[in-house]
């Protein structure tokens, strides 16, 4: 009896040690799993394949390239846990990234021939083989483009001085919010690339190609990867375009707040020029890495830090900053972190924490900027998968008893407040006042529970100058308290039918916010900003509070005179805010946010001058007669100054101050003297 010949199994069935029906071109098991593109049969299935000695030429045949591959192979073999990362298998363009349930893959995945992939494997998820990543993603046009930037940087003579500036800034306790663990290493790596001894033996083309090659490599992690292992993949010999981007962003941030007394950056004009130039270089380096379509955790963190930098340099109202915040949201969705930031058990704890913090600060910035500018937010919580309950929930009110008040804790609190702010935005459009009040009471209870559950050492109680903590911690305490007060502020504002309605609770919260901002202005030399700047706190919290207080002063009438308000204290704090802007101690006239602050403080100063001169009583009596007559007149005949038909949580931006400046009391020559 003749034995049946052995039939080879396809590669997927052979690797999985599963039975194969040997059907060609696609076996039944691969067809059922929609893996038609990977169903291949070896030409010599029962003989070992001899490995070619030496292999093909690598993109960079030097020590650096060998170091990269050796380090990566060591990382992979260090654990039996499957390797996982944001781009473990970089895709050819277009890189789809995260694809949800409504995407095309859900439909095409039901087809029997590999989810719509063509027979040659160049379908939706086609992946370059190992060793061909560089060839597939980098072309000579990109390398030449990068070489032009490298040549510019070689001509910049102050790289060592910039590194010293960054290290001096870091020594104060300041840092970037997300990349604090590897800011200094990237600065040293940038100095090595741009001024090292090996620079003379390498051309700009070689340096550019080296950076592109490393930027193409996935950031490989497993459950045993440490933060040092992670950092080693983009520093020193493994430096990428991302490494240079992080360095130049830290230079620009350092030039904003750190006062160096050593040349060449010992004057404000020199530091201002350095800020702009460094931001330009950071933008270019970030673009180099993003053009490869190999999105990863590091690039997402850099995009967020780049957005923050543009708000500081271009201003909080600039379109460039607004656009880059949209880029952050897009990358967050593309990586799927709105659904899952943990990625399974193979992701190390430090990377899970980094991803959670990145989502938190991105989500918080999206809410705060949208409120400040009066624009729709991009990241909606109903499309995000996160739980608000349970000790392991990032948004839970439960905190570990030994929780450390660091940047991660600050980011978590900012995200918790952002969730409450989004809930407030949702009820602002509620037409039924009873439903709005009911929903507002739920939000208020949640806000109070979050604040009461916050560890005591996270809360700012008492004057700032009496706090026994470092300047960095004091700035975090200030931001935490202001964020909580802002939730209460927005909630009371949303409940008002009209912005001009008198609300003692809102006035009280606004007074607390203004007092904190003014106290921070007076003690700013004792604050070190790592997250949001002091200018942002003044613009976002201070101006909103001052706007409510100014309206309260203008809308006071006989029925509200009995309500207690420390007018003298309010006048002093408003005067401090005005003087800080006018004297140029907060912002210079050349700074982007100066126009916004100057316009608001000009209106505040006009109001203070007229109120303090005693001319308001005469105006109020005249205005009362006008309002009384208006009640019996038609809307056209009795039209008075009242630009707000209803309350909105998004009123206190620059347009608010332009409108307030047109109030009859501030415009009338009769009462203005």
UniProtKB/TrEMBL annotation:
Domain of life: Eukaryota
An MF annotation (GO) of this entry: zinc ion binding
Cell compartments where the protein resides: Nucleus
Pfam families found in the cross-reference section: Zn_clus
Residue span(s) of domain Zn(2)-C6 fungal-type: 9-41
GO cellular component: nucleus
PANTHER family, sorted: UNCHARACTERIZED TRANSCRIPTIONAL REGULATORY PROTEIN (PTHR31001), ZN(II)2CYS6 TRANSCRIPTION FACTOR (EUROFUNG) (PTHR31001:SF40)
Name of the protein in question: Zn(2)-C6 fungal-type domain-containing protein
Organism this protein belongs to: Clonostachys solani
């Amino acid at each position: 009896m003749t034995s049946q010949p052995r039939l080879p199994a396809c590669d997927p069935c052979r690797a999985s040690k599963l039975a194969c029906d040997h059907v060609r071109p696609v076996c039944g098991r691969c067809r059922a799993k929609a893996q038609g593109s990977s169903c291949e049969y070896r030409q010599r299935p029962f003989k070992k394949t001899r490995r070619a000695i030496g292999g093909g030429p690598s993109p960079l045949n030097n020590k650096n390239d060998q170091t990269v591959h050796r380090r990566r192979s060591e990382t992979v073999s260090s654990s039996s846990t499957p390797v996982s990362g944001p781009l473990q298998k970089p895709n050819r363009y277009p890189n789809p990234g995260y694809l949800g349930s409504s995407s095309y893959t859900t439909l095409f995945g039901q087809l029997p021939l590999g989810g719509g992939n063509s027979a040659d494997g160049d379908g939706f998820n086609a992946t370059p083989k190992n060793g061909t990543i560089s060839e597939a993603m980098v072309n000579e046009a990109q390398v030449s483009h990068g070489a032009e930037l490298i040549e510019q940087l070689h001509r910049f003579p102050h790289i060592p001085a910039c590194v010293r500036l960054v290290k001096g800034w870091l020594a104060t306790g300041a840092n970037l919010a997300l990349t604090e663990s590897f800011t200094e290493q990237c600065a040293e790596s940038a100095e090595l690339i741009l001024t090292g001894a090996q620079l003379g033996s390498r051309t700009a083309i070689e340096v550019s190609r080296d950076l592109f090659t490393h930027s193409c490599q996935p950031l490989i992690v497993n459950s045993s990867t440490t933060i040092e292992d992670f950092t080693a993949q983009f520093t020193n010999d493994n430096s990428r375009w991302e490494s240079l981007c992080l360095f130049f962003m830290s230079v620009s941030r350092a030039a904003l707040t750190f006062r160096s007394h050593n040349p060449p950056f010992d004057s404000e004009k020199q530091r201002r020029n350095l800020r702009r130039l460094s931001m330009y270089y950071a933008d270019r380096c970030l673009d180099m890495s993003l053009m490869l379509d190999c999105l990863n955790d590091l690039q997402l963190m850099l995009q967020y830090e780049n957005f923050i930098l543009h708000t500081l340099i271009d201003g909080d109202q600039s379109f460039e900053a607004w656009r880059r915040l949209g880029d952050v949201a897009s990358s967050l969705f593309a990586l799927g972190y709105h659904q899952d930031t943990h990625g399974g058990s193979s992701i190390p704890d430090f990377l899970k924490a980094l991803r959670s913090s990145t989502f938190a600060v991105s989500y918080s910035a999206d809410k705060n900027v949208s409120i400040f500018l009066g624009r729709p937010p991009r990241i909606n919580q109903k499309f995000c998968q996160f739980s608000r309950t349970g000790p392991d929930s990032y948004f839970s009110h439960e905190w570990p008893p030994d929780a450390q008040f660091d940047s991660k804790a600050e980011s978590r609190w900012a995200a918790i407040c952002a969730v409450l702010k989004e809930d407030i935005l949702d009820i602002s459009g509620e037409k039924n006042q009873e439903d709005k009040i009911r929903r507002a009471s739920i939000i208020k209870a949640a806000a109070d529970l979050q604040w009461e559950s916050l560890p005591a050492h996270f809360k700012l109680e008492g004057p700032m100058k009496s706090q026994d903590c470092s300047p960095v911690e004091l700035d975090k305490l200030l931001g935490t308290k202001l964020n909580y007060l802002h939730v209460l502020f927005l909630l009371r504002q949303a409940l008002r039918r009209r912005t001009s309605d008198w609300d003692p609770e809102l006035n009280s919260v606004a007074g607390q916010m203004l007092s904190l901002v003014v106290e921070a202005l007076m003690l700013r030399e004792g604050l070190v900003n790592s997250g949001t700047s002091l200018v942002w706190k003044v613009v976002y919290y201070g101006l909103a509070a001052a706007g409510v207080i100014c309206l309260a002063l203008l809308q006071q009438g006989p029925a509200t005179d009995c309500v207690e308000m420390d007018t003298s204290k309010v006048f002093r704090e408003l005067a401090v805010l005005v003087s800080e802007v006018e004297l140029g101690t907060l912002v210079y006239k050349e700074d982007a946010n100066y126009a916004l602050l100057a316009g608001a403080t000009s209106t505040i100063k006009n109001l203070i001058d007229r109120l303090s001169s005693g001319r308001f009583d005469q105006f109020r009596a005249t205005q009362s007669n006008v309002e009384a007559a208006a009640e019996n007149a038609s809307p056209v005949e009795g039209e008075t100054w009242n630009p707000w038909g209803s309350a909105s949580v998004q009123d206190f931006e620059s347009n608010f101050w332009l409108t307030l400046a047109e109030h009859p009391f501030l415009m009338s020559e009769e009462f203005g003297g």
